[in-house]
Amino acid sequence: MHEGHAEGADCREAVERLYFFLDGELTIERRAVIQRHLDECSDCIEAYEFEVELRTAIARGCRESVPDALRLRVYNALNGEGTIGPI
Ligand SMILES: [Zn+2]
Questions:
Q1: Count of CB atoms situated within 10 Å of the CB of 44
Q2: How far apart (Å, rounded) are the C-alpha atoms in residues 84 and 73?
Q3: Per-residue pLDDT, 17
Q4: How far does residue 30's CA lie from ligand 1's centre (Å)?
Q5: How far apart are alpha carbons 56 and 39 in whole angstroms?
Q6: How far does the centroid of ligand 1 lie from the alpha carbon of residue 67, in Å?
Q7: What gap in Å lies between CA 73 and CA 87, rounded to an integer?
Q8: How far is the CA of 11 from the centre of ligand 1 (A)?
Q9: How far is the CA of 65 from the centre of ligand 1 (A)?
Q10: In angstroms, rounded to a whole number, what is the distance separating the alpha carbons of residues 66 and 61?
Q11: How many whole angstroms from 58 Cα to the centroid of ligand 1?
């Protein structure tokens, strides 16, 4: 346990901060603490990798769906069946 250790992070803290870590919303010092915990803790690195894969899948899905939605809006506009609405 790293209880009371100023520079350590326990599993609960690491998981709680995982989202902020991935969003780049932590200070450099905080990122270093979480990164070090992930390097040492197989449970947390699994949670981290799962989250990364999930985000990659979501990002991939978005990239594919955006052009389709855009094409449909253009198609509808060209055919007078709709207007280009707000994105
Ligand atoms: Zn851990």
A1: 21
A2: 6
A3: 92
A4: 15
A5: 21
A6: 40
A7: 10
A8: 4
A9: 36
A10: 9
A11: 25
pTM above 0.85, yes or no: no
Single-letter amino acid, residue 85: G
Residue 7 Cα to ligand 1 middle (Å): 14
Instruction: Report how far ligand 1's centroid is from the alpha carbon of 74 (Å).
Output: 49
What single-letter amino acid sits at 57?
Answer: A
Cα–Cα distance for residue pair 15/47, rounded to 1 Å: 8
Span from the CA of 27 to the centroid of ligand 1 (angstroms): 19
What is the separation of C-alpha 85 from the centre of its chain, rounded to a whole number of angstroms? 28
* 47 CA from centroid of ligand 1 (Å): 9
| pLDDT interval class at 85 (50, 70, 90) | low
Whole-angstrom distance, CA of residue 22 vs CA of residue 83: 37
pLDDT tens-digit map of 7-52 = 567 999 999 999 899 999 999 999 999 999 999 999 999 999 999 9
